[in-house]
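queue> pop job 88
queue> type: inverse folding (structure -> sequence)
queue> payload:
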């Protein structure tokens, strides 16, 4: 026992939060218990491990195998007997306790994890008017519990593992057996197994390492804080990747049209969902094209503007020293700075900075003659439109492409915008997410899936799952 304890102390003994508790079992068997203060429940250890083992009334201890003694006396949910240090030390780092008994060659790990966690709250990045108010937190087991509360099917498979050479981060792979395609499941497993990194601290790291095209501005995996959205993805045949320490669950694969949907679309009546989706589609077009159209029309195609409007724009731009492109870049850059400042500051201060900063800077810029009032209106509409998109990842992508579209408009006008738009579509058609076509169901064409594209058909008509991924069971509901 002394050699075993010395070996354990050499590995983890330099840390002051590693507690070694020495005691005797029935006054004649020496034992040592190792655990980490803060990760393990002290009261749980005292009441369910040390007290039963030191109780002299447990005569079953005398002359019985250690395995039977531990299983029948100790009151913990999970007990493992290991014969090497690697399998013993790692559970201790996760909050388990390690029991060493004199005269027994093997080591015993006991589940004593008890960590503080954030309470389940409404997601901050995916707010809905109608729908559940609970959201994922940073504890993996709690996130799995939130999904299992919604899907009580035994075909829901949860496979856990560890990732990261040093962080040893817990992760879980979730999918519906009989719905998710086997090829997709194997591909996700393979890509995760290929990750060789010191530490994985957030799901975004995994997302970057397993996506197919790292140079694409478009997200190739979905992410969500909402358990209802994650459950819907599972029943659609997609695979979830949950990382311990992150409230964001990854969804694989994802296609472009799914990034413009919200769970709320299915909770409201079909014509309300259709109206909301139509507004989002218009908002995406405005957020991508409006500044570029303004630059192109003002700089190259003045003849396309009605005379009255052209005279009004010319009057507002009188005295502005910069061309339309520089004017737009200055205002867009200012809006992006205000947006980031509002996000990083405390919420009450951030909201004030965003509103007051936008009003003051816009008004001051117009009064100083640096920008025109029409440019302020264009930038404001663009910012509002980008906020209307439900997924933050696609909103960021459109913000990036908007600047490229403005550069194309400043060089060739509307022709440059058309060429850049064609280039975007070429890229999207060739993009894949775990083998799924990114532009489905438009390309490849699948008309039945159009019933759940921009126009959301009544729920009674939506009997089939989406075309991507190709599920084993494509029937969502039986014919009525």
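queue> result:
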């Amino acid at each position: 026992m002394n050699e075993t304890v010395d070996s354990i102390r050499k590995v983890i003994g330099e840390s002051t939060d590693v507690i070694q508790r020495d005691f005797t079992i029935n006054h004649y068997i020496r034992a040592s218990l190792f655990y980490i203060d803060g990760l393990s429940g002290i009261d749980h250890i005292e009441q369910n491990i040390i007290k039963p083992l030191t109780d002299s009334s447990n005569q079953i201890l005398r002359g019985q195998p250690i395995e039977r003694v531990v299983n029948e006396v100790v009151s913990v949910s999970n007990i493992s007997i290991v014969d090497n240090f690697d399998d013993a030390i790692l559970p201790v780092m996760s909050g388990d306790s390690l029991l060493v008994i004199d005269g027994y060659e093997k080591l015993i790990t006991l589940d004593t994890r008890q960590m503080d966690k954030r309470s389940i709250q409404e997601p901050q990045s995916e707010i809905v008017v109608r729908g559940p108010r609970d959201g994922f937190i940073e504890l993996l087991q709690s996130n799995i519990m939130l999904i299992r509360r919604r899907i009580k099917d035994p075909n829901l498979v949860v496979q856990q593992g560890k990732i990261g050479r040093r962080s040893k981060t817990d992760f879980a792979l979730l999918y519906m057996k009989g719905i998710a395609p086997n090829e997709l499941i194997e591909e996700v497993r393979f890509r995760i197994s290929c990750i060789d990194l010191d530490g994985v601290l957030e799901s975004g790291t995994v997302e970057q390492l397993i996506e197919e095209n790292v140079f694409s501005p478009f997200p190739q995996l979905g992410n969500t804080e909402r358990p209802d959205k994650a459950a819907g993805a599972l029943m659609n045949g997609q695979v979830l990747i949950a990382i311990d320490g992150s409230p964001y669950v990854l969804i694989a694969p994802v296609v472009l049209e799914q990034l413009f949907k919200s769970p709320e679309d299915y909770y409201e009546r079909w014509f309300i969902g259709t109206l909301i989706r139509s507004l989002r589609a218009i908002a995406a077009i405005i957020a991508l094209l409006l500044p570029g159209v303004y630059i192109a029309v003002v700089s190259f195609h003045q003849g396309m503007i009605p005379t009255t409007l052209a005279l009004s724009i010319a009057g507002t731009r009188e005295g502005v020293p910069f061309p339309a492109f520089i004017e737009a870049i200055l205002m867009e850059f200012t809006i992006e700075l205000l947006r980031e400042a509002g996000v990083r500051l405390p919420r009450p201060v951030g909201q004030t900075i965003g509103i007051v900063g936008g009003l003051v800077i816009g008004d001051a810029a117009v009064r100083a003659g640096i920008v025109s009032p029409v440019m302020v209106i264009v930038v404001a509409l663009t910012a509002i439109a980008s906020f209307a998109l439900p997924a933050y990842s696609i909103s960021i992508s459109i913000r990036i492409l908007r600047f490229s579209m403005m550069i194309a408009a400043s060089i060739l006008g509307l022709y440059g915008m058309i060429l850049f738009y064609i280039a975007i579509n070429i890229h999207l058609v060739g993009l894949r997410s775990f083998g799924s076509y990114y532009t489905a169901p438009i390309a490849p064409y699948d008309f039945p899936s159009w019933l759940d594209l921009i126009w959301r058909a009544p729920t009674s008509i939506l009997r089939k799952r989406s075309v991507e991924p190709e599920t084993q069971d494509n029937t969502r509901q039986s014919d009525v």
